[in-house]
Amino acid sequence: MNEGLPRVGSALIVRDEANRILLGKRNKDPQRGNWVLPGGKIHAFESIADAAVRELAEETGLTVEVKHQFRVYEVIIAPQEHRIIIYSWAKAIGEELRASDDISEVKFVSLHELGDLPFTPLVRTVLADAGFIEGSSSLRADVLEPTMPSLFPILIAGAAWQPPLRCKPRMRPRRRRAAPVYRQSLLQFDACLAE
């Protein structure tokens, strides 16, 4: 068992005054050459926003203002990878763009150009969920910031997790997937889930 997993990271959906999205081209494996939303590992005792601001400055040279959280995603590729990534909205406020060692190119991309770029599977899912590209998103492209901030579950000493209530019982057991799993976390409180 890998004791260093899961890794927790913070990434940003950064927009500039022209409403373009900041992207970086990966310069390391895996997924070298694909475009990503900049971010990285959260260090011990570092806030989600502080980690994203630090990583963005290191990777792009850009200064940003973090607004609020968008969503939380989980990547599981057993047995070598398990990551939890918290995506937040941010606004560019200064500095000049420059690529670092982790990314070979960094630029702001218009919403019309997004569909033509190669993305990592997770970034494609995030951009679709945000309504910027076609996908399984429930948001529209003209809705750029959610009116209600997302919540991130915080573990409390003595608390126990319970599965959400279901309106209908499941008739067949779930099978374990062999392929990578990309999930987006949502909190649900005392309500039946529609199936």
What is the assigned CATH homologous superfamily of the domain at 7-129? Nucleoside Triphosphate Pyrophosphohydrolase
Gross CATH architecture of the domain at 7-129: Alpha-Beta Complex
Radius of gyration: 18 Å
Poorly predicted spans: 136-159, 187-195
* SS elements, strand count: 8
Total helical elements: 2
Overall body shape: globular
Order of helices and strands: EEEEHEEEHE
* Structure classification: mainly beta
User: How many strands, what sense, and barrel or not for the largest sheet?
Assistant: 5 strands, mixed
| Average pLDDT for all residues | 78
Distance between the termini: 35 Å
Helicity, as a percent range:
10-25%
Give the strand order, joined by hyphens, for the main sheet: 4-1-6-5-8
The CATH class assignment of the domain at 7-129 is Alpha Beta
Percent of residues in β-strands = 25-35%
Topology summary:
Elements: E1 7-15, E2 21-26, E3 35-36, E4 39-41, H1 48-60, E5 63-77, E6 81-94, E7 103-109, H2 121-129, E8 181-185
Parallel strand pairs: 1-6
Antiparallel strand pairs: 1-4, 2-3, 2-7, 5-6, 5-8
3D structure, described in words:
This protein is mainly β and 195 residues long. The chain has a domain at 7-129: Nucleoside Triphosphate Pyrophosphohydrolase (Alpha-Beta Complex). The chain has helices spanning 48-60, 121-129; strands spanning 7-15, 21-26, 35-36, 39-41, 63-77, 81-94, 103-109, 181-185. Strands 4-1-6-5-8 form a 5-stranded mixed sheet, sandwiched between helices. Strands 3-2-7 form a 3-stranded antiparallel sheet, with no helix packed on it. Strand 2 (21-26) and strand 3 (35-36) form a beta hairpin. The model is unreliable at 136-159 and 187-195 (pLDDT under 50).
